[in-house]
Amino acid sequence: MNAIPAGLDHLVLATPDLAATVADFTRRTGVVPAPGGVHVGRGTRNHLVALGGTAYLEIVGPDPEQPEPTGPRPFTVDTLPAARTLTWAISPPDLDAAVAAARSRGYDPGEIRPMSRRRPDGTLLKWRLTDGDSQHPSGLVPFLIDWGASPHPTAAGLPGTPLLSLAATHPAPDEIRPLLAAVGTDLRLSEGPVGLSFTVDTPRGPVSFG
Fold first, then answer.
1. Alpha-carbon torsion 152, 89, 15, 66, what sign?
2. For the chain, give me the number of helices (H) and strands (E)?
3. Is the pTM of this model over 0.90?
4. In the chain, % of residues over pLDDT 90
5. Average pLDDT value over all residues in the chain
6. Can you say whether the dihedral through the CA atoms of 183, 188, 192, 198 is positive or negative?
């Protein structure tokens, strides 16, 4: 099995304190994540790091400059005790067909809905993704994303730390494997508490995040 899953679009490192997590990433890797943009109305913003090819790391957390959102912030950043690699995304060639195929194989990735954010340079990015209560609660089964006509985040010339590996643990790995197959990807899985971790190559050597 490959150390990097098929179709990987991005990893989500969620945090209750975005500034502190960006500073920690910088200290450990020697690479400063680039500001990504603001999720207007959702109460979050992000910083990004290229992982090689068209894959990237999203560090996402509360945006103190936005008013409190009407509902929970994305990726449970309101309730996280510390930064954690929470989930990941793949980008299939045809999002609608991939969702239909997954459902035919017994797994519902959730409904497809639109989202957007504005980059610091003013460029508006629009994308569609799967999001819903039917997604696996472990975060180990990726959500699906389609950037449509928007430029991919990696097209902006992000600072980079090449991804060396992505792996996960779960109390029942055989429960997760068919769900990964249903969405057309794979992931190194071993038995243990639910967790997702990745290792990147940096100017300071390989660094792992959980």
1. positive
2. 3, 12
3. yes
4. 78
5. 94
6. negative
